[in-house]
Amino acid sequence: QVQLVESGGGLVKPGGSLRLSCAATGFTFSDYYMSWIRQAPGKGLEWLSYISRGGTTIYYADSVKGRFTISRDDANNSLYLQMNSLRAEDTAIYYCARRYSGNDFWGQGTLVTVSS
Amino acid sequence: EIMLTQSPGTLSLSPGERATLSCRAYENLDSNYLAWYQQKPGQTPRLLIYGISSRAAGIPDRFSGSGSGTDFTLTISRLEPEDSAVYYCQHYGTPANTFGQGTKVEI
Fold first, then answer.
1. Can you tell me the distance from the alpha carbon of A30 to that of A73, in angstroms, rounded to the nearest whole number?
2. pLDDT at B1 over 80
């Protein structure tokens, strides 16, 4: 069955960096677009970025453009989110999701806390 | 980015009643790339509806989606206690994939 497992979250100081990973199993990873979506504590869902098959097309939300970079490694069935210049408002649970007919499968998320 | 506004903010209903949730786009969606998700407390969002009106796998037929242009609706025909959740709409077109702010359904 489809499984997405995020990792790499944690506590980081403002201005710092983190790299999130998402390990995908149960489907042919290279055949699918993938997304990153986050949810701040007690808030709604915020789409961040998606990447096409092969990584040729990438889009970002304005809130993270220039600071976050999405990438994928199809050989290792993995999705990544490099996050730089982190701010307190980036504190959230970060989900990876398979982007198919919306986002049909989601991971359990990894918590990122930006605080001094 | 196409902004989506959901209403009402909270809907309080009884079991067996019908729930009607609205999602309004600031611009015409020139595609059918509109989805609805359910998120229960402490859980990951679950895809309910894609392509405006197609139910995702395993979703009961009491959930239905409709609409076109700028106005979209999620209808839950006969509410059950387990339908208590926050419901989000999302435009998953190109380039941005914005979410609405959510509607909380209390039963």
1. 9
2. no
Q: From the CA of B17, how many Å to the nearest CA of chain A?
A: 25
Cβ–Cβ < 8 Å for B98, B90: yes
Tell if the CB–CB gap between B39 and A108 is shorter than 8 Å.
no
- Measured between alpha carbons, how far is B84 from B91 in angstroms, rounded to an integer? 23
What is the residue whose two structure tokens read 């096409």? Answer: A52
Q: Which two tokens stand for residue A96?
A: 């990876």
pLDDT digits (tens, 9 = 90+) for B27-41: 988 789 999 999 999
Q: What three-state secondary structure class fits B98?
A: coil
The pLDDT of residue B29: 84
* Whole-Å CA distances, A76 to A19, A22, A72, B57: 16, 10, 9, 27
Burial class (CB in 10 A: 0-12, 13-18, 19+), B93: middle
Block residue for tokens 């999701």: A97
Residues B48-93 have pLDDT tens digits of 999 999 999 999 999 999 999 999 999 999 999 999 999 999 999 8
Q: Which residues of B touch A47 (CB under 8 A)?
A: 90, 96-99
* Alpha-carbon gap, residue B90 to B67, rounded angstroms: 13
